[in-house]
Structures are given as structure tokens and as C-alpha cells.
């Protein structure tokens, strides 16, 4: 499934939708790597949102101010009043607490929120390393035991050595089982914490974005209603036109 980036181009980082009936199996290791890439993308998107929000509100203020300037030389009260109210309203939003709160929420998300999980990510990585190393050792022990498997006429010394290596393999299998369980617990804990942070981040940003966009929408709607409520141009000018 392709998605559009904020620049309007197709994003190749969007998740691919599995086909109907297809069983998707992703290892915890691959999932952690995917999370890391997703975080890079999220931070990039937040930085762009920060820049775009500032530039968009500045542009709206500039447009409202230019309408006010254009209207000042007309003799049409509704345009003069509406443009003046719009300029003041947009400037009020630009300097208001809602926009400031949104910017602070974005800054916090970029600088602090997901740093909380960095330690847990490192612990998970170390647990994964221990598990992988143990699994590699177990694979070598299994191969060695297969090679040492004595024949029926093997001498007692060879049989004893094989039994000793087999015991080592069995003990290491138990250690591998323990490390796998440890990693699975760490991974589950990581997923839970990560999900909680994503929820907090999304909820905070949506609340702040909604406040800012609602404030802007209110000012624009008020200007539109004011224009529609009064005559666009004086009757004398309409006759001349």
C-alpha cells in the first residue's frame, strides 16, 4: 500500500498490505528494526509539521493584512470591516496560546517523549544478542554431537565423550529456552511501552492541532459570514458597473 508524503510524492516506506489469506510472520528482531525506521520517519514528519505550521500561519497573517491594506482604499464598509476583523483574528491565533501549545507539543515529541524508551530499547537489543549467541552455540553443539555419534562398535572412551557432549547440548538447550523466554518478555514489555508512547503522542498532537485549526476556521468563517451578510458593493457602484 503506497502512501503520499507531505511533499505530494508516493512514499515507499508505507506498509505493504498482505494479500487475502496470506500469513504474515514477523520476527521480534525485524519488528524492532521496523520501529526504529518508523521513529526516524515520525521525527522527520514532525519537523516538517513544525516548519509548515509556522509558515502557514505567517502566510495567513500576511494575506489577511494585505486584504486589510487593499480594502482601506475602497468605500465598501463590509470589506473594510471584514478584512480588519480577519487580520486581527488571524494575528490573535498566531500569537495565542493554542499555537504556542502546539509548537511545544511538537518540540516535546521531537526531543523528549520517545527518549523514555531508549533504555528499554537498549535492554531489548542486549537480550536479543544474548539469545542469538546462545542459539549459535547450540547449533554448533548439535552439529558436533551429530559428528561424534558413536557406532555400535565404538570404544567406551568415544561413547563417554559423546555422552558428555550430549549433556552439554541438553544443558545449553535449557539455557537457550531461558534466554528466549527472557527476550520474549522484554519484547512484550517494549511493545507495550512503545504503544503507550505512540498513544500519548498522537492524542496530544491531535488535541493541539484541533485547537489551532478550529481557531483559524472560526476566524475564516466569521469573515466569510460577514461578507455574505452585507452587500458586496454599494448600489451606486453596481449601477455604474
From TrEMBL:
Domain of life per record: Eukaryota
Name assigned to this protein: BAR domain-containing protein
Species of provenance: Leishmania utingensis
Amino acid at each position: 500500500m503506497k502512501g503520499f508524503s507531505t511533499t505530494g510524492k508516493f512514499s515507499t516506506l508505507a506498509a505493504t498490505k498482505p494479500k487475502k489469506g496470506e500469513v504474515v510472520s514477523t520476527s521480534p528482531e525485524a519488528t524492532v528494526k521496523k520501529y526504529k525506521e518508523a521513529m526516524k520517519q515520525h521525527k522527520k514528519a514532525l519537523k516538517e509539521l513544525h516548519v509548515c505550521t509556522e509558515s502557514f500561519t505567517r502566510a495567513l497573517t500576511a494575506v489577511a493584512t494585505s486584504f486589510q491594506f487593499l480594502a482601506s482604499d475602497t468605500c465598501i464598509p463590509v470589506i473594510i470591516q471584514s478584512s480588519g476583523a480577519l487580520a486581527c483574528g488571524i494575528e490573535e491565533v498566531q500569537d495565542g496560546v493554542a499555537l504556542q501549545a502546539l509548537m511545544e507539543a511538537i518540540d516535546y515529541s521531537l526531543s523528549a517523549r520517545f527518549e523514555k524508551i531508549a533504555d528499554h530499547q537498549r535492554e531489548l537489543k542486549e537480550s536479543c544478542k544474548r539469545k542469538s549467541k546462545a542459539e549459535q552455540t547450540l547449533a554448533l553443539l548439535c552439529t558436533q554431537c551429530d559428528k561424534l555419534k558413536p557406532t555400535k562398535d565404538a570404544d567406551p572412551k568415544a561413547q563417554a565423550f559423546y555422552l558428555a557432549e550430549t549433556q552439554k547440548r541438553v544443558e545449553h538447550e535449557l539455557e537457550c529456552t531461558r534466554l528466549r523466554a527472557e527476550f520474549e518478555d522484554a519484547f512484550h514489555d517494549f511493545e507495550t511501552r512503545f504503544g503507550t508512547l505512540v498513544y500519548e503522542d498522537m492524542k496530544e498532537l491531535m488535541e493541539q492541532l484541533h485547537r489551532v485549526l478550529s481557531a483559524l476556521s472560526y476566524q475564516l468563517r466569521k469573515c466569510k459570514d460577514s461578507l455574505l451578510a452585507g452587500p458586496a458593493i454599494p448600489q451606486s457602484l453596481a449601477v455604474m458597473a
